[in-house]
Specification:
Blueprint lengths: L5 H4 L35 H13 L22 H5 L3 H4 L11 H18 L3 E3 L5 H18 L7 E5 L5 H8 L3 E5 L9 H7 L4 E7 L11 H10 L3 E6 L18 E4 L1 H4 L14 E3 L11 E5 L2 E5 L16 H13 L2 H22 L15 E4 L10 H10 L6 E2 L8 E4 L7 H20 L1 H5 L12 H6 L6
Parallel strand pairs: 2-3, 2-4, 4-5, 5-6
Antiparallel strand pairs: 1-7, 6-7, 8-9, 10-12, 11-12
Helix pairs in contact: 5-11, 6-7, 12-14
Bound molecules: pyridoxal-5'-phosphate (PLP).
Pyridoxal-5'-phosphate (PLP) binds next to helix 6.
Length: 475
């Protein structure tokens, strides 16, 4: 009864607001008028509000629960930015408005570019890409434009480590490159011998996710950059998870040539649910001329869009990019000074290591070393009474926690990737660890309980095979 869809709750004649009988107008052409009334649910306003309010409460959300979704940086994003990012002068600007009418928007774009340059040490940034993966594509096409300009026509390969985010090889492939995968070393970082063996005059770029997907910093990155450059290739850094590095390290200092950031995740735009994103791409001086046009530039007191960039790879997105997300990133970087940003990264790292250390002995990290902003556990069913990672994740829902990312990264068997972020309190982390400890005890006392979880949710364990093979899209 409680879960009936509104269409099933419909009772003929029930209404919410009653309007005066609409006057009949004859300005609509007769053939465009509908012949019969639409089939809409008939409900009172009260029942409708309750229905949708209850539905909203059946979802997990960052505003309601701890959301330790690894690789997604589900942190607190100031609510004030919600209003700032939809201010009418930005939101209502016409895409074809002349530059003189959108000086404010251009100024903010310009200043955000400058701020991103400062935190990464790179020479130029474009704000066009609409997501992280789109940023990667932009970055790798920038690499191609660079090699084309240098007549490096034999460079047809992109080397990707197995600790890279899955979008990295997909991007290289989409950009027309052959992907060369290299295995990581036993410590979870790049295997330098494997890298050296893969590098050749066919290599266009090496793509590294930093921190990598097992939550570790590539400790030899400086040396790796030298190897890459010696081979005549460029070093691409996937900086989507910059929350771990912001204020602490500048990628330009360790030899990165091109990189992207995710304004969603690190810079105050919520990530998840596939909402609009922004994946700015930065480049070192020798690669900057190949970034997409237009570039936002400052001429005297005026801001202008420069389309005259002869070596640019072209346009990657119509108009200005996702301005609402750009605005949020701008607010974030203007609100906090360098020290606070550094503190944000340090707290994110501290929180991940706190969770990792507290769980040790019950749920162990796959690589037993200090991690960056997230820790990756591996839950071995043969030692856990047959319980799998998915079971533990589902049981966490019963305890009121959104489940962490599971079965990613692929190189960790039965992975559970926990990213607490800097915005969670010690009390919350203790409560989360406490829930996992209780689940650990349940695994040995009553494994079936964990295996059949969740027990308290609106929807219990889903038959994933049927859901994929015979999806009911009209429930
Ligand atoms: C999230 C993420 C991406 C992709 O970003 P999207 O905006 O989802 O396309 C790429 N790399 C890493 C490391 C990420 O965490």
């Amino acid at each position: 009864m409680e879960n009936l869809l509104s269409i099933e709750k419909s009772k003929p004649g029930r209404r919410g607001v009653r309007f005066e009988q609409a006057q009949k107008h004859d300005y609509l052409p007769q053939n465009l008028l509908r012949a019969s009334a639409p089939r809409l649910p008939e409900m009172s306003e009260f029942d409708t509000v309750r229905h949708f309010t209850r539905l909203s409460q059946e979802n997990y959300s960052l505003d309601g629960q701890f959301y330790p979704l690894g690789s997604c940086t589900m942190k607190y994003n100031p609510k004030a930015y919600d209003e700032l990012s939809v201010l009418a002068p930005f939101a209502n600007a016409h895409p074809f408005a002349p530059e003189s009418a959108v000086q404010g928007t251009l100024q903010i774009m310009y200043e955000l570019q400058e701020l991103l340059k400062e935190i990464t040490g790179l020479a130029a940034f474009t704000l066009q890409p609409a997501a992280g993966a789109h940023g990667e594509l932009t970055g790798i096409l920038t690499v191609r434009a660079y090699h084309d300009a240098h007549k490096n026509t034999s460079r047809c390969e992109v080397i990707v480590s197995d600790t890279a985010h899955g979008t990295n090889p997909a991007t290289a492939n989409m950009a027309g490159y052959t992907v060369v995968n290299i295995k990581s070393a036993a410590d979870g970082c790049v295997d330098k011998q494997a890298l050296q063996a893969a590098l050749s005059d066919k290599t266009a770029a090496v793509m590294l996710t930093v921190p990598n997907t097992v939550g570790l910093f590539e400790k030899d990155i400086r040396e790796i950059a030298d190897m890459v450059h010696k081979a005549g290739a460029l070093l691409y850094m996937d900086g989507a998870n910059f929350n771990a590095l912001i204020g602490l390290a500048k990628p330009a200092d360790f030899g990165v040539d091109v990189m992207h950031l995710n304004l969603h995740k690190t810079f105050a735009a919520p990530h998840g649910g596939g909402g609009p994103g922004s994946g700015p791409v930065g480049a070192a001086k020798h690669v900057a001329p190949f970034l997409p046009h237009p570039m936002v530039e400052k001429k005297g007191d005026a801001y202008t869009l420069n389309d005259e960039i002869p070596q640019s790879l072209g346009k990657m997105k119509a108009f200005y990019g996702n301005i609402a997300v750009v605005l949020r990133g701008y607010c974030y970087l203007r609100q906090f000074d360098a020290n606070t940003l550094k503190n944000i990264a340090e707290k994110a790292i501290l929180n991940a290591n706190y969770v990792r250390a507290k769980l040790k002995g019950k749920f162990d990290a796959f690589f037993d070393v200090n991690c960056m902003h997230e820790c990756v556990l591996s839950i071995d069913p043969s030692k856990m009474n047959g319980v799998h990672t998915a079971d533990v994740a589902k049981r966490l829902l019963d305890y009121g926690f959104y489940a962490p990312t599971i079965y990613f990264p692929l190189i960790v068997p039965e992975a559970m990737m926990i990213e607490p972020t800097e915005t969670e309190s010690k009390e919350m982390l203790d409560a989360f660890v406490g829930a996992l400890e209780k689940i650990y005890d349940e695994i040995f006392a009553n494994p079936q309980l964990v295996h059949d979880a969740p027990h308290t949710q609106v929807v219990s364990r889903i038959d994933e095979v049927s859901a994929a093979r015979q999806p009911n899209l009209r429930w």
